[in-house]
Design brief:
- The protein is of the alpha/beta class.
- The chain contains eight helices and six strands; from the N terminus they run ααβααβααβαβββα.
- It has a six-stranded mixed β-sheet, sandwiched between helices.
Length: 239
């Protein structure tokens, strides 16, 4: 159930992010993220959060000032968003999120989202958290020093956001190194399940995986390894 004061506290947080993070002198403005429909998110047994790097806007790093969830508006998200050039990142996240909220259905048992556009709607009910909230300065190569600087400077805001959303399953798509210190995970040994690593702490599952757009392993293996890890955690089959 959604906490009684969630909407008020989350708006307060976003307002503070905008005040502290905006860089009008660089024409770079906060792109708020989180979860689009918190009422549904908090009703789920599994509150899933994708822990990401940064949002994108103009190629020169300018822009922002809009909501991350502007991407999730419309009647057909596949046609309006997810059949575009960024689909290598979004498609695996959609398949995994859909499966987690639909009895852990595996890759071979799922429709392709191009044939079942409604599967894309799941993005409205899971959390997306970027480590820094301004548009990426480089759309082709991540400047990790910029991300670390933002995390260090605004760690209190990032922690407040994570605490408010209170996910119980975190998926790090090649971002574990960005968040591990912030979440006090460095003290744990990462265990291996297929192609992913995981940590269980305080009944929460932290998954360290490849970036969703990875090409190191086949997509079906990437998707199923994450699904299986979450399913085993839910059934208390992971140590």
């Amino acid at each position: 159930m959604k906490p009684e004061n969630f909407d008020f506290e989350y708006k307060k947080l976003i307002d503070e992010m905008i005040i502290r993070m905006n860089k009008p002198e660089e024409n770079r403005y906060v792109i708020p993220d989180g979860v689009m429909i918190p009422d549904i998110y908090f009703k789920k047994d599994i509150r899933l959060a994708w822990m990401l790097k940064e949002p994108y806007d103009e190629e020169d790093g300018t822009g922002g000032g809009w909501s991350y969830f502007d991407m999730f508006k419309g009647n057909d998200l596949y046609l309006e968003q997810f059949n575009r050039s960024h689909k290598p990142t979004w498609h695996p996240m959609i398949y995994i999120s859909y499966s987690v909220h639909n009895n852990f259905v595996k890759w071979k048992e799922m429709n392709f989202i191009r044939d079942a556009h409604e599967m894309c709607d799941v993005v409205r009910n899971v959390a997306f958290i970027n480590s820094q909230k301004l548009p990426s300065k480089n759309v082709t190569r991540t400047d990790f020093s910029d991300l670390y600087e933002s995390i260090e400077k605004h760690s209190d805001l990032l922690i407040r956001q994570i605490d408010l959303l209170n996910p119980n399953v975190y998926i790090f798509g090649n971002t574990f190194h960005l968040y591990s210190s912030l979440l006090n995970l460095e003290k744990f040994e990462i265990k291996i399940q297929g192609s992913v690593g995981y940590i269980i702490d305080n009944e929460k599952l932290y998954i360290s995986a490849y970036h969703p757009a990875q090409t190191s392993i086949k997509r079906d293996l990437y998707v199923d390894d994450i699904i299986t890890t979450i399913e085993k955690w839910k059934k208390n089959q992971l140590s």
